[in-house]
Amino acid sequence: MEEPFLILENITKRFDRVEALRSVSLDVKPGELLVVLGPTGAGKTTLLRTVAGLEAPQEGTIRMGGEDVTRHSPADRDVALVFQDFSLYPNWSVRRNLEFPLRAPGRRFTQAQIDERVAWAAGILKIGGLLNRKSQQLSGGEMQRLAIGRAIVRRPRIFLMDEPLTNLDAKLREALRVELVCLQRELKTPMVYVTHDQVEALSMADRIVVLSEGRVLQVGAPEEIYRRPASPVVARQLGQPAINLFNVTRSNGFWMSESGMPVAPAKDGQDKAMILGVRPEDIEPTGGKHAGEVRVVEDMGPTKILLVSWAGCDVHVVTPPTANLRPGDKIFPRVDPAQVVLWPAGS
Amino acid sequence: MSFLELRQIKKTFPDGTEAVKGLDLSVENGELIVLLGPSGCGKTTTLRMIAGLEAPSEGRVVLAGRDVTSLRPARRDVGFVFQFYALYPHLTVRQNIAFPLESVGMPRRERAQRIGAVARRMGLEPLLTRYPRQLSGGDQQRVSLARAVVRRPSVYLMDEPLGTLDADQRLVMREFIRDQQQAMNVTTIYVTHDQEEAMSLADRIVVMNEGRICQAGPPTQVYDDPESLFVANFVGSPGMNFVAGRVRTENGKRFFSPDGSDVRLPVDREVGAGPVTLGIRPEYVCPASDGPVAGAVVMDEYQGNFRSIHVDAGFGSNIVMRAAAGDRREVGESIRLNFDAAHMRFFDTRTGQRL
Lengths: 347, 355
What we know:
Chain A is an alpha+beta fold and 347 residues long. Chain A has helices at residues 44-52, 74-77, 94-99, 111-124, 140-152, 170-187, 198-204, 222-227, 232-237; strands at 6-15, 18-28, 33-37, 59-64, 67-68, 79-82, 158-162, 191-195, 207-212, 215-220, 244-251, 254-256, 262-265, 273-278, 283-284, 292-299, 304-310, 313-319, 330-331, 334-335, 341-344. Chain A is built from nine helices and 21 strands. With 355 residues, chain B is of the alpha+beta class. Chain B folds into two domains: 4-234, P-loop containing nucleotide triphosphate hydrolases (Rossmann fold); 241-348, CATH 2.40.50.140.
């Protein structure tokens, strides 16, 4: 087991009476890309700022590289932050923006070293041709590359990224997501990446931390969190369309919906009342015993999304594009019993 | 004659910007049309000309057989849903929905009936006495939609109505709109830059760029048979793969070869000589031990119900393959791929037009 580079222990951060972080514990291993996923107001940005030293926690300790840095200034922590809004100096050239972190007080780089580092970062991020351009003349994608360049140029011990791709259009976001992951892997510098976007979280993360109202709800590999979410709240944060949830009771070997229709087979010995979750891709449109009515068919290209009235609920079913179904059609959905997730009622 | 017709409409703004450059569109009664394009493509200006909020510089707008080009918005019988909720904060949900009916002087009893019916259908009954600030974003959006439909206009016009909602709510509202629209069978023109929204909602998608229509057709047609590189690139996520190269014939057989590569991909139709760009969607790229394309896995993006595998095949940009969620690949792993010939699309590299 590799020793984690960053360890947060029971971090609590209050602003007046609001608890932004409630006893948060997590770790980041060397070279790991950790994604913190949560909705607006979950405490993601506060978490990142606390790691950076821009906020001081009331309780808890932060360790980096084996050393307690809880009381260290931001500069002494040697971290690099990238924000959603780029935070560039608009009137400065790309080169000057890139040099800035290297010229900060306390850093003693020779001009030759600075030139070498700037050329290296600009080369990696494909902005070498833009060095003399003012940053305000760049496109959105170029600006974000520059912002990332400014973070890597110093070769910090850890990257902290706060929704860096949010303000970019969909195509660019997709492309930069891949570049960012490849870059992180190449540099082997650990990264904490904060986002509300579940697609980014699933596709980029080595591990995901699900944060809600300042608390850690679950930590795990993307597949683990997607397939075995610890609670319905976590389950609903990942997957589009969202997981189907049923309030069920056990009766005669089946989980029955509130309308009294069997949803999936039940095993003996389980609680009587549960919440049953099944992802839309784990429901077949045929093979079941009880009819549902197709209400909406959404053709998404490689898949179709059906909204079906079934078992007294609005249920999403994802099918291959070849399924030829129209609103009003009757189908017989079958839930894949192996993919069902159960939680105690009220969770 | 179609229900709504735009005939050669143009809009040139005083600063000389040609927002819409001569656009023809016929919309059938009950159809849901999505105007899709990047910002600045003219889609919102087109919608505003249908609403009467902008006067066309040239051309006619004909609605239900009547030329409405010079009519004020209120005389056109259209219902407009804006991007922002724009609910009156000091009025209850009931009063907000009632507002358009009051302003046309509808008698109280008929008004109450209309509001009751729309609230029931949209599940707003428990919210009627609340104020907008007491509602979630999604509920505000439903009220906004209720207010637009309560008057039963002959056309709904929607300008990115879901733009401010988060992803989860967007999907719910999208289906809600589709469900309601199908139940009421009212002609709807819907503007968005979100291709996923367009795919899921539309009877027909009208893809626009630089003030013109690039392609109009059902979602599957726009997705499967894009007429230009622009449309192919704009629709679909993850996007279509593009590879620049040439088609040549050897021993009576046609092949596509990417530039700077000796890979030969069989081509099943006449394409013509010269530089072409091959387009193929990630779901038609498949692993095959005898596939003609060899490469190395650069990235494996898990997406929950599927994976996007990025492969460096030496074609300039990576090839993305859509794989099953369980088909995990290691970075650096070598892989051979086959491209489904029936789903290869060819474009003229210079003009961007489909060949």
